[in-house]
Amino acid sequence: MSVLALRLAGPMQSWGSSARFARRTTESAPTKSGVIGLLAAAAGIERGDDEALATLADGLRFGVRIDQPGSRVRDFQTAHHGVTGASMPLSERFYLADAVFVAAVAGETGLLTRLFGALRAPAYPPFLGRRSCPPAQPVELGLRDGDSLQQALTDEPWQAAAWYRRRHQDEAMVSLTVLREADEDEHDADHQRDQPLSFAAEQRRHALRTVVSRSVNVPNPDVVRQQAGRPRHDPFDALEESV
Amino acid sequence: MNRFYLDVHALQTVPPSNLNRDDTGSPKSSVYGGAPRARVSSQAWKKATRDYFGAKNLLDPSELGVRTKKVVEVLADRIREHDASVTESDALELAAEVVAATGLKIEVPKRKSSKKAGADDAGADEETQDRPPQAKYLVFLSTRQLDGLARFAVEGAADIAKFLKDKDNKARVKQIADTRHSVDIALFGRMVADSTDFNVDAAVQVAHAISVHRVDNESDYYTAVDDHNKDSEPGAGMIGTVDFNSATLYRYAALGIHQLAANLGEGLREDESKITPVRRAAEAFIQGFVESLPTGKINTFGHHTLPDAVVVKLRTTRPVSFVAAFEEPVRGDLGGHVSEACARLAEYIPDVERAYGDEGSTLTWVLRVGPNTRKLADIGTESASIGELVASVGQAVAERLEKPE
């Protein structure tokens, strides 16, 4: 068993799990169906090949760590029919701008080795939830031994951008949220309709999957050590005293 | 087939303009590297590229895909591939009905030995003839369209005449066979998916263009005088505001050549290389993407510009966007946005290629304008003009396609 770790970063990403029709929303973190879709595309699994998809969707457990949450951007889109020129419904699309995530899938080593290779020379190019959102850098971080998603997502170095790390340079450890599928002995799981069953164009189907939220502490490589004699400054100290 | 990708990167400066606006009329924006950026949506630039194909005659549908008069025979073969239980003569009959329903005129070719000399538009009841009907002119069909038509025929095989009388089916078959848009659909997919059954997965991936530097939208307050106002204190006939910004944009698109080849299909004329249509479509894409421009408020702002720098890569590994070079916003006070953006790329590209690329198989071309782009000169083979760039990339694409698996 192994874990394949991915770095999902780019100017824009969009991970819908319940978006329908003209209002296409995004979750605040990558979805399992989106990441499985990215892997399936790299491996050349065609839309509608539900059997091959099931090998990935059922064979891999999924988790994601929010390294840099980003912000929501709303996009307003108009469209006209290519042949008739008729106006199509106006649509609203939401994106996560400026976000960085570490996603991980755990499963059988042979399968993950094949997927790792496929990401280097993909059949269909990778995108972050939506076609117009290519990743800013290659997504594959590497294969890790073991099968614990929690462990892999704790060990992975903090992937946030330099400007974002600078903002947190006072913190020796940063606390990051991990959202992952539950282990068998975990009973505090929520459910999300995010287990892909079919990506066929006519009929996309998703089942429920579990999701638990944990936080992990990851060292900040850019921490600036407090120098002796340098006064500690926190403007909120004054507020608390006056209350 | 070998997998390989073409990626196109461009730096383009636009003066005060509003190429692509949101529902409040402001230019679209985003955030990157913690700083607000100008944004032009991918769909806006894809639309501009497609329109450019038509306006400049970059692509002639007849150059690409399956071009044949024997559309009935080709379709009948495809029907039998989809459903082997259909007999050859039934398949021909089905194909003739379906092709006729698309609105194409078909007729039985005349033969000296044939007693029946007249042409028959419907093309039905021809199974007794030893020659199937043909289209009156050369028809261009993509593989996907043929597959769609074949599936359609199999679906209605029980009683094709009755099936085609249905208004919805009639509309569907016409839509499947809409031949005028095949090539750009192979590149971009369908822009408006109103028939998900026949969607094509686009071979092209276009990113939202974003400015390499921090951009805050500005607002132009204007007044207009009413020429016929005779009041002693005329005032303004109209006032309003137009939002705008100016930006140096990083634009990125990737084209899966193997996907394009699959979308266009390989059933070409005997005497024509199957490589030609892929090469032509790839060439048209590069030129169209580089030279096109969204026309939002173009008569207000006249923002006609072309990219200062273009980098094209042909690679066997995954395509790579260089947008991370601009995650830290470029500062204009260090000699201009273009100059610093080029310096950033000149440093970033070799770095990312060394870390992740495949130097042995990756080819790089550069097209650049002006002294500000000098730092990009050594990134790849320099082309003197867009024509030269397009031709040499097309040549390389053709050579790669010719290589055995």
UniProtKB/TrEMBL annotation, chain A:
Coiled coil: none annotated. It holds the Pfam family Cas_Cas5d. It comes from the Bacteria. The gene is cas5e. This is Type I-E CRISPR-associated protein Cas5/CasD. Keywords: Antiviral defense. CDD domains: Cas5_I-E. NCBIfam families: casD_Cas5e, CRISPR_cas5. Residues 210-243 are annotated as: Disordered.
UniProtKB/TrEMBL annotation, chain B:
It comes from Streptomyces castrisilvae. This is Type I-E CRISPR-associated protein Cas7/Cse4/CasC. Residues 15-40, 110-131 are annotated as: Disordered.
